[in-house]
TrEMBL record:
One of its GO terms (molecular function) is DNA binding. The keyword Transcription regulation applies. InterPro entries: HTH_ArsR_DNA-bd_dom, HTH_MetalResp_TranReg, WH-like_DNA-bd_sf, WH_DNA-bd_sf. Keywords: DNA-binding, Transcription, Transcription regulation. It comes from the Bacteria. Residues 1-99 form the HTH arsR-type domain. The keyword DNA-binding applies. It comes from Sphingomonas melonis. Transmembrane segments: none annotated. This is ArsR family transcriptional regulator.
Length: 99
């Protein structure tokens, strides 16, 4: 993925909000019955509920974040859990410094 694609992924308020929440999922989301908020990430449905969007809209945004490697996805049973990637987010600062 190019730097341009990375910044396009960040160029959407819902995706940015998702990244903000995922930095501290314990503070932003209720505990989950399946999956640990920190280790596994947040269930995609919980993210959609908090954003106030339906499943198709969620399915638009989360794959963009995954493709840009800003979040990782993990399947547990029939659910997908999303967790932000600290290293990739930190690399954004170094990209901006080169501009």
């Amino acid at each position: 993925m190019s730097d341009t694609d990375l910044f396009r992924a960040l160029g959407n308020e819902r995706r940015l909000q998702n990244l903000r929440w995922s930095r501290d999922p314990v503070a932003q989301f209720l505990p989950q019955r399946i999956g640990d908020l920190v280790e596994d990430g947040v269930c995609g449905q919980f993210i959609a509920d908090k954003l106030g969007v339906n499943a198709p809209t969620r399915s638009e945004h989360l794959p963009v974040l995954q493709a840009s490697r800003l979040v990782t996805a993990k399947r547990i049973r029939q659910r997908t859990f999303h967790r932000h990637d600290d290293e990739k987010l930190a690399s954004i600062a170094s990209i901006v410094e080169t501009i």
